[in-house]
Structure formats: structure tokens, C-alpha cells
Amino acid sequence: MDQLILRPSGPLSGEVPISGAKNSVLKLLAATALADGTYAIHNVPRIADVEWMSELLISMGADVAWSGEQSLTVTWDRDCIPEAPYEVVERMRASIVVLGPLLTRFGRAKVALPGGDDFGPRPIDMHLRALEKMGASFETVHGYVEARCERLRGSRITLEFPSVGATENVLMAAVLAEGTTVIENAAREPEIADLASFLNRMGAKVLGAGSPTIEIQGVDALSPVDHRVIPDRIEAATYLAAVGAAGGEVVLVGARADHMEMLIHKLGQMGMRISPDSAGLWAMASGRLKAVDVATLPYPGLATDYKPFLVTLLALGEGTGIVTENLFTGRFRYIDELIRMGADIRIEGHHAVVRGKEMLSGAPVKAHDIRAGAALAVAALRAEGETVISDSSHIDRGYERFFEKMRGIGVKVDRK
Ligand code: UD1
Q1: Per-residue pLDDT reduced to its tens digit, 221-252
Q2: Nearest residue (CA) to ligand 1, atom 15
Q3: Looking at residue 116, what is its pLDDT?
Q4: What percent of the chain has pLDDT over 90?
Q5: Which atom of ligand 1 approaches the CA of 128 most closely?
Q6: Contact 145, 111 (CB under 8 A)
Q7: Disulfide-capable partner of 187 in 9, 142, 164, 347 (CB 3.0 to 4.6 Å)?
Q8: Residue 182: its pLDDT value, please?
Q9: What angle do CA 189, 206, 231 make, to 5 degrees?
Q10: pLDDT for 120 beyond 60
Q11: Does residue 117 carry a catalytic annotation?
Q12: Average pLDDT, integer, range 34-45
């Protein structure tokens, strides 16, 4: 089943449960390599990326099993093979975050270099420079980074850019390093704070996660813990966008407003009403949204992952909005698909000029990546006729029960 078939829908209504954050759980799974024993991680989404990360841990020597609908048990009690093969890294770039934990714990790691993807190149130079400063040495052999170190040394690391992955790799390396590490210009995403709270419960000493300066005092050993993953703000944004496009009133159960303030503000400017309630987040929209300008920035700015949804809403809004991408220059490919659905969008370098239309027109389109696929599904809610999204398995990489959840709030969707 690799096609989603959607028809114009709305007004939407009801409740949609928000799953655990993909971008958090993948890093928590990597962090389990820091200590032997058994971990229980709760609120884990059943998505392909989680299965792949689990396979990677299994290939390194862990036991990983579901122990309930949303809980994963991870046990490390054998020798670890500190290697991430190309087949895994190529499929899922996030697997690069095993580098920090493996290196600091075992003094060596071999991780395939990620290649480019639809978002353009994704270098890891900042990760490597920071770990080098902490005492690691690297060699690139046959497409792999081979890393070695004695015990890493705490250092002052100033990141050129608040990279999420580099912050996470350094953070996980620093918890077992000798002495104190300070990360300046650290990424501040809620997923980083979640990782830090996981590490602190394991016995690490991390202060300041969620702010631009993180201080980590290295410890000699850590121990496994139980942890509940924070809700997925990007998934929540997707259903907010569905309400924005189709209209209606929906409660996002479990979503956290404090993790998505800038987006809520932006959608408010566009005319949506969104407010926290006891279950999560209540959202309402009626009529066409108004155009605004949008620029992606590191957290607490508007996440680049929200952009496909904002572009889609602007394509259906009243007026013209300019969208500026500041993180991944190539992240505009889904726009060709939106244009096939009749959207009026012009790309100028890393800007997109989006002129809103009352309705789009259903068409066969392709999901190039997780968010692009989901954004096309949102566009289909206000596209005359039928929209058929092929390669919809991309959506399943990042969304738990997307089809069921969309149906649950009244979206007319089938799969084939
Ligand atoms: C993570 C998220 C992704 C999100 C992104 C930015 C996961 C699994 N993925 O990706 O969904 O879109 O944060 O919020 O959590 N860069 C370098 N050198 C480096 C590292 C990064 O030049 O060593 C550049 C990148 O090319 C990009 C920018 O820094 O332009 C941001 O990348 P980064 O924050 O590292 O993103 P990821 O951690 O890969």
C-alpha cells in the first residue's frame, strides 16, 4: 500500500492523538549505548525510522523489543560492535548521532558518512570538529568515518551554527568525558532538552539544555532509566495545518503549546484560533486564512520542518506570502508537486513567493520525503477532485497511523 487517495474534506472535527517525537526518540535510542542494562522508553511512535534505529542498535549488539503498544525495551548486556553501516545511515541520517555515545563509551566508532539528499548536502563537519577538540581523531576510509580516542576531555565548544545533530553528538559524548564541556551556540530545540533530561536521569550532569549554553560535567559511568518521550511538535503542526486548510475544530490530544509558540503565533496571524486546553491543544479555523511572510530559523524560530505546511496554507490563503528557507537550501522540491496541483508559487533562490488561491486542483503527486508527503495530503483537503499521493510510504517513516488519524478527524482518504 503505497498510495493515498484524498478528496476535498472539512470542516474537520474531533480529537487526534499526538505521538511521541520522532526527532527525540531516535536520539534517546542512540543514548542507550552509553550504559549497559535495560531501558524502558515510553510514548514511542511506531514508525519506520524507529524500526530502523532499533535495527541499528540490534546490529551493534543490543536487544530491542516492543513491550506494549508504545513502549520499547532496550537491553545492552553483550559486547557492543560500535559500527553504523552505510545501509542504515543512508536510509536514515539521524543515525549519525550514534557517533558521540559510541566514541565516548568505547573509545572507537565507525560510522558511514551520510551522503546528500533531497534537502541538499548534510555535512557533519561541526560534529567532527567538536569531537576532535575533545580529543578524538578521525580518518575517512571507504566512505566511513573511523573515530578513535582515549577518554574524551571536556572542552569549550562554540558551534558555528546551532546544529541540532552536532549539539546532540557533543552532548552525548561529553557526559562521559573527563572534566567539564561547555557548548556555546547550542541548538535549543525541545528534543535537546528531552535528551538532556534522559541523560540526567541516567546520572549525567547537564545544565542549561534548551538554552544557547549547555554545561556538562563528565561522570565516570551512567545507568539505564525509564523515560517518556515528549510529544511530536511537527506531527502536531501537520494536524494544525489540516484544520487550517479544511476548516473545523479539532483537539490535538497530548500536544504541547510551549513547544510550538512561534508556530501558534504565526497561525494566529493567519486567522486560526489555537489555545492550550486540558487535553492538549484546541484549534479552530473557518474561511480562508490570510497570507503572512515566513522565515525558518533554529528554535525558538519557525522550524524548517513546518515549512511545507505553511507553504501549503499560503497556497490556499488570501494574498501573497514570502517564505524564506534559512536552514536547508534545497528543501523546496515538494513545491513542484504543489504547482502540479495548481498552486501559484515562484522560487527565487531560497525564497518562495506564494500567491494564494481559493481552491487547488487534485492531481497525481509524489511524496519526496516525510513532511513533503504530509503537506500534499493537507493540500488535497482543498483540491477539487481526487489527489493521489504515490510513494506515501515516506509519510509512514515519520507519522504514526497517519491514515487512521486523518480519517479520525473527518478527512476523506483511502489507501491503495
Ligand atoms: C534536525 C532534524 C530535522 C530538522 C533539523 C533543523 C532530526 C532527526 N532531524 O536535523 O528534522 O529539520 O534538525 O531543525 O532531529 N550543518 C553543517 N555542518 C554540520 C551540521 C549541520 O553545515 O556539521 C548545517 C546543515 O547543513 C543545515 C544546518 O546546519 O544547513 C542545520 O542542520 P542541523 O540542525 O544539524 O539538522 P539535523 O540535526 O541534521
Answers
A1: 999 999 999 999 999 999 999 999 999 999 99
A2: 23
A3: 54
A4: 90
A5: 23
A6: yes
A7: 164
A8: 98
A9: 35
A10: no
A11: yes
A12: 98
**One fold for 3-19+231-415 and 22-228:** yes
Judged by phi (left if over 0) then psi (alpha if -120 to 50, else beta), residue 68 lies in left
Q: Could you give phi then psi for residue 366, rounded to 5 degrees?
A: -125, 135
192-230: per-residue pLDDT in tens? 999 999 999 999 999 999 999 999 999 999 999 999 999
Confidence of residue 115 (pLDDT cuts 50, 70, 90): low
CATH dotted code for 22-228 = 3.65.10.10
Cβ 232 vs Cβ 405: under 8 Å:
no
What does the pLDDT look like over 269-312, one tens digit per residue?
999 999 999 999 999 999 999 999 999 999 999 999 999 999 99
pLDDT at 128: 95
2, 36, 63, 117: which is the annotated catalytic residue?
117
* Residue 235 to residues 65, 164, 398, Cα–Cα distance (Å): 24, 18, 8
Rg of the chain, C-alpha, whole Å: 21
What are the pocket residues of ligand 1 if the criterion is a CB atom closer than 6 Å to any ligand atom?
23, 26, 94, 122-127, 161, 163-166, 187, 303-305, 327-328
Q: What is the dihedral of CA 406, 408, 410, 414, to 10 degrees?
A: 60
Distance 411 CA to ligand 1 centre (A): 32
Mean pLDDT score, 95-107: 96
- Domain 3-19+231-415: CATH architecture, name and number where available: Alpha-beta prism (3.65)
Number of C-beta neighbours around residue 156 at 10 A: 11
10 Å CB burial of residue 407 (0-12, 13-18, 19+) is: middle
Q: Which amino acid residue places its CA nearest to atom 1 of ligand 1?
A: 164
Q: Where are the domains of the chain?
A: 3-19+231-415, 22-228
